[in-house]
Amino acid sequence: MISEVSVIEKQYINSNSVMAFKSFTDALHMHIESALEKGSRSLVFVCIGTDRSTGDSLGPLIGHKIAGIKNKGVYVYGTLEKPVHAKNLSLVMEQIAVDCDNPFVIAIDACLGSMEHIGYVGIGPGPVKPGAGVRKELPAVGDMFVTGVVNYGGYMDFLILQNTRLHTVMKIADLIATGIRFVIWKLERSK
Where are the beta strands (DSSP E) in the chain? Predict the structure, then answer.
């Protein structure tokens, strides 16, 4: 007899879809609940990027929007005030190891993709590789990833990030931040 095994896979969600919020929150809830069942005691959101580049500001914008979450065991690193970027990423990860008890790290970052995927949110197990879109060698981060495709990539990616529409970044940031707040509320309510 073959038993059913629930495998959590990566998903891509169109932020312009009427089902975007439900799809995102269902996926995020499933990942976090699975981690908590396996013994993680704290949730750490590492919002990667910089406010000095429109396309790379997705992480700090989300961090800014969720920094007010004061639930026990929930930590947010990377905001508009204190961004997590290439120069401090290793230090922040060391600090998380000190500050957080058995953390489940959710890495949030902007990414570049194909033209038809601009506005999509990726969510799945495993780390994100920050800086890969602009060919930077940085350590992989996270037990799971949430990425937002803010623009197309392939040629002069640094310039593309500088010339990304703020509307696209804000739309993705609103979906992810609101989704995170909802899932944290839902988890707290079910205790």
Answer: 11-14, 42-47, 74-77, 103-113, 120-125, 144-152
Strand order in the sheet with 144-152: 11-14, 120-125, 144-152, 103-113, 42-47, 74-77
Contact 13, 23 (CB under 8 A): yes
- Segment 92-112, tens digit of pLDDT: 999 999 999 899 999 999 999
The CA distance from 171 to 161, in Å, is 16
For residue 176, give the nearest of 16, 73, 24 by alpha carbon.
24
Q: Is the pTM of this model over 0.70?
A: yes
Please give the sequence-ordered ranges of beta strands (E in DSSP) within 15-58, or none if there are none.
Answer: 42-47
User: Domains in the chain, please, with CATH?
Assistant: 11-189 (3.40.50.1450)
